[in-house]
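Hi R.,

Here are the chain sequences for the assembly we discussed:
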Amino acid sequence: MSARRIALVLACAGVATLTACQSGGGFNVNNIDLSAIAKNVGNLKEVKEPEEIQIGGSMAETLLGASPLLDDAELQTYVNDVGMWVAQQSERPGLPWRFGVNSSDHINAFAAPGGYIIVTKGMMKQLRNEAELAGVLGHEISHVTKKHHLNALRKGALVNLLGEGLAASSDKHSELVRQLAGPTKELYARGLDKSDEFEADRVGVVLAARAGYDPYGLPAVLTTLATADPKDNFLSLLYKTHPLPQARLDKLTPGMATLDNLKATQNADRFQKLTRKLKVASN
Amino acid sequence: MNAAKTLPGWLLAIFLLALPAAHAAETGYTLRATEVKDKPFTDATTVATLPEKTVVEIVTRQGGWMQVKARDAKAGWVRLLSVRLGSPDARPQTGGNLLSAIGVGARPRTTSNATVTTGVRGFSEEDLANAKPNPAEVEKMKGYSVTADAAGEFARAGKLTAQDAAYFDENGKPVKGKK
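And here is the predicted structure of the full complex:
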């Protein structure tokens, strides 16, 4: 803690103009006080919501740098509709939830703090209906509501990031992005703890069920993925960063029965209609 | 499927690409002794009971249920979670290949060499490592976002209504919390 404070003070002292050291020595990045984040990280206190959103947006810049959004406004809006509706069933309905389909042929999905969620085109092509999409999005939404990535950063990378202190920069937002790029790449290549993934599965199926969807959407996707070769190039990162699909199914099995007597909508027709272009374009 | 081994690669590729993703015939096996129902409901009539590791042909999948046909047993519906796709002998998690993927219905259709050539746009570990931050794409992503009200409209149009469901723990027991 004190070492990081010192690093911040030294960084401030080294700045030629004091513009980056306003508000009592803090670094303002679009009104986000980074020294406050540093203090909170040091004390392992909660990162405030505006800071969380700022961090997530910065991480999303790197994730979308790896693969940009698919140019299909109708599909992007559709995925936002499904995702926003599922997110409304969570404990954090008021976050600025943003969903996107990237142009990657790999099969994966990602969440970043503050409500940024990206599904790959490759994953979209594996899905059969809206309930399966809701299951995948429910899993990712759970990573956000449970702050899995934020906590992973607090435990490791972000501490180093802020400990270094921010260099003087005329564009402080891009400086935050730059500083977060390394930790972001490391975190998404390494993955979360397995326990976080199992928890996101358990919470995700409940969110989908609350939204009126067939809760077996996510188990159905995992069943599909369970047949794949783990050495498959398109699944390599998913397999590296997640427990095997069959292990996830085994873990979900005891709880699924609690969701058995609910309404279970699949909306396969709407899903097929809105994803038809993906299937045509792919071959 | 042995015939596939004699097919030229390009023909195999066409065959794979032509497979409809959601409706290819699949086979699997029971993970445990499993009741076969005449309809996809828990309280439907039980028409057969399959022992563990019974190989089944999957006719169709519907949410948490699979319509299956086992040799010497009546066709019917079993729980999705009671069946694992693939063969009980070949272990797809530890070494599938192109041909075994065809054997289990070629889903996910990812093992075709035909697709791992040019024009593949990835999100591999390498793509991630080489990523340059792209603020314009985040702005675009924000532009696609919808309001909670719009999502509610969308849900109504899709005949979706919110319902209560409790979170559950590792053992499947409901946990305290909202709803």
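The two ends of chain B are 50 Å apart (CA to CA). Chain B touches chain A through 79 residues (CB under 8 Å).

Let me know if anything looks off.

Best,
T.
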